[in-house]
């Protein structure tokens, strides 16, 4: 029987790569994005249906969820919509603070909440969320982005207990640097007293030779959707794996010194 995945944030990056991969594997794909009328590539794929969805709009979440479920069974919900807000906290206006958490954290919570009754009735289903290595480790000039991803970590782990008891899975993908994602889908807050630090941090992450492509992360999403395990976290990308292993090995306080040294040497 053909399976179906529902994807948020499918207009670019990991979301689009995942939609294409699952379609190539014979899955039905419901790819959602804020402006589906602008999408040209996914519309060419027979297995893919496009629907409008802004994850900061609770009413649209309800409507799009109902429309998706009316079209047939859904097996996996991939919460991928999000972006990076970078820069010193002092430079970030309140509306940007709210938008970051509303999109990256509450958007995931609301979409998940909308699908839980359906999965509960079926006694099956799987939620997969795009987290980040920034949800496992704190980095400079990214306090709000890291906060949104750390929030997803605690939320997912806690929620796993109530969902698993109902036969529902929940998993988080933890990539490191993904090519083009930070550069093309970020909001930068500038402040002269922190711009040197911001520049050093951006240089460090964009010059990493061990980053991943969106297509490589999509392969991990497919693994998570099909491996039949109850694994909660999938740390992926050589950069994320190496840094997280180092953090676990040396401990939290020593690892902060590792990050400070990394930035100082640039």
Structure description:
With about 270 residues, this protein is α/β, with parallel strands linked by helices. It has one domain (about 5-265): 3-Layer(aba) Sandwich (Rossmann fold). The protein has helices spanning about 15-25, 60-70, 95-120, 145-165, 180-185, 195-205, 215-225, 240-250, 250-265; strands at about 5, 30-35, 50, 75-80, 85, 125-130, 170-175, 185-190, 235. The chain has a 7-stranded parallel beta sheet with strand order 3-2-1-4-6-7-9, sandwiched between helices. The radius of gyration is 18 Å and the shape is globular.
Sheet-strand content, in percent, reads: 15-25%
Supply Rg. Answer: 18 Å
Largest sheet: 7 strands, parallel
Treating each run of at least 4 consecutive H or I residues as one helix, how many helices?
9
Assigned CATH superfamily: NAD(P)-binding Rossmann-like Domain
CATH architecture: 3-Layer(aba) Sandwich
Top-tier CATH class = Alpha Beta
Pfam families: adh_short
GO molecular function, one term: oxidoreductase activity
Organism: Siphonobacter curvatus
Protein name: Short-chain dehydrogenase/reductase
What secondary-structure arrangement, pairings included, does this model have?
Elements lengths: L3 E4 L5 H12 L3 E6 L14 E5 L5 H13 L5 E4 L4 E4 L6 H29 L3 E5 L12 H22 L4 E7 L5 H4 L1 E4 L5 H12 L7 H13 L6 E4 L1 H13 L1 H13 L2
Parallel strand pairs: 1-2, 1-4, 2-3, 4-6, 5-8, 6-7, 7-9
Helix pairs in contact: 1-7, 2-3, 3-4, 8-9
């Amino acid at each position: 029987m053909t399976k179906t995945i529902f994807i948020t944030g499918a207009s670019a990056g990991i979301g689009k790569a995942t939609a294409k991969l699952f379609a190539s594997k014979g899955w039905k794909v419901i790819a959602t994005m804020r402006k589906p009328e602008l999408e040209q590539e996914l519309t060419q794929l027979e297995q893919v249906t496009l629907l409008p969805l802004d994850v900061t709009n609770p009413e649209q979440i309800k409507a799009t969820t109902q429309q998706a479920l009316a079209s047939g069974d859904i097996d996996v919900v991939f919460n991928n919509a999000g972006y990076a807000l970078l820069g010193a906290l002092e430079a970030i206006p309140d509306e940007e603070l709210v938008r970051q958490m509303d999109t990256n954290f509450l958007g995931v919570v609301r979409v998940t909440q909308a699908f839980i009754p359906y999965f509960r009735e079926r006694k099956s289903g799987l939620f997969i969320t795009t987290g980040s290595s920034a949800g496992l480790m704190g980095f400079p000039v990214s306090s709000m982005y890291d906060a949104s991803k750390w929030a997803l970590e605690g939320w997912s782990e806690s929620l796993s207990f109530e969902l698993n008891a109902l036969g529902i899975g929940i998993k988080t993908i933890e990539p490191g640097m993904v090519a083009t994602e930070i550069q093309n889908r970020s909001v930068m807050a500038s402040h002269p007293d922190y711009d040197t630090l911001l520049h050093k941090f951006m240089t460090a992450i964009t010059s990493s030779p061990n980053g991943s492509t969106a297509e490589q992360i999509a392969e991990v999403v497919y693994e998570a959707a099909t491996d039949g395990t109850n694994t909660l976290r999938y740390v992926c990308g050589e950069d994320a794996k190496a840094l997280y292993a180092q953090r676990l090995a040396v401990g939290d306080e020593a690892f902060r010194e590792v990050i400070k040294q990394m930035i100082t040497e640039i």
